[in-house]
């Protein structure tokens, strides 16, 4: 229950490969967390467990860096006039820039404890989150992210029908895209702050949900959230048991399984994934 609330971010851009993960929001948030950990001493690692001294500072930095990426995306979309495919490729390229900066910071910071904290954090692990941090994630998800996405579900269907039809209904597609992007950035930042980068769930879950309930957002959105939670729990369980007592972080498991599964879904989903 840490990332499934943002998995529908890609739907309003009519692109199969768009998500907070591929749009660079996760990597931007990770850079913000690294800055908080390295320069503000926001946490440390003790016996493979990360402790955040001030989780709010870490979350704020993750959100601010995600907002920077949001602004970059909006500039590329509306100022540079990039299409969906070019926008995704550009965002992925920018994600590599964030990763390079993150590696550079780790290389320059000569504090082994802080560097180890950042490296271990990037693996993505549900076991490191505390109850207090979980309450914060749940509060943001239940009070802001999930209600907003469900409230806009009908509007998302209109946007997929075209901007002109959306405007004729008295709804601004630009405003909805901006609001949804900011909400997605908030959800991504909060989740990424405490569990690290857990990729591919936000891509796989909506594809699976489409095969089950079709493309209408009224049913697609809650189904995607449920599928995201199921995939996350299964991945975490397998990671904890496959070579027990050694635990494989869930972020590694989702990346290993998610990439080939996503390719399979894209191939098979072309025939069935858009039924209404």
List keywords for this structure.
single chain, 276 residues, mainly alpha, ABC transporter involved in vitamin B12 uptake, BtuC, two-stranded antiparallel sheet, globular, disordered N terminus, disordered C terminus
What does the model show?
The chain is mostly helical and 276 residues long. The protein has a single domain, classed as ABC transporter involved in vitamin B12 uptake, BtuC (Orthogonal Bundle), CATH 1.10.3470. The chain is built from 11 helices and 2 strands; from the N terminus they run αββαααααααααα. Strand 1 (43-46) and strand 2 (49-52) form a beta hairpin. Residues 1-15 and 272-276 have low confidence and may be disordered.
Strand composition percent: under 5%
Please, what is the average pLDDT? 74
CATH fold node name: ABC transporter involved in vitamin B12 uptake, BtuC
Structural class: mainly alpha
The gyration radius over C-alpha positions equals 18 Å
Shape verdict: globular
CATH architecture: Orthogonal Bundle
* Fourth-tier CATH superfamily name: ABC transporter involved in vitamin B12 uptake, BtuC
Q: Output the helix-strand order.
A: HEEHHHHHHHHHH
The largest sheet is: 2 strands, antiparallel
Count of separate structural domains:
1
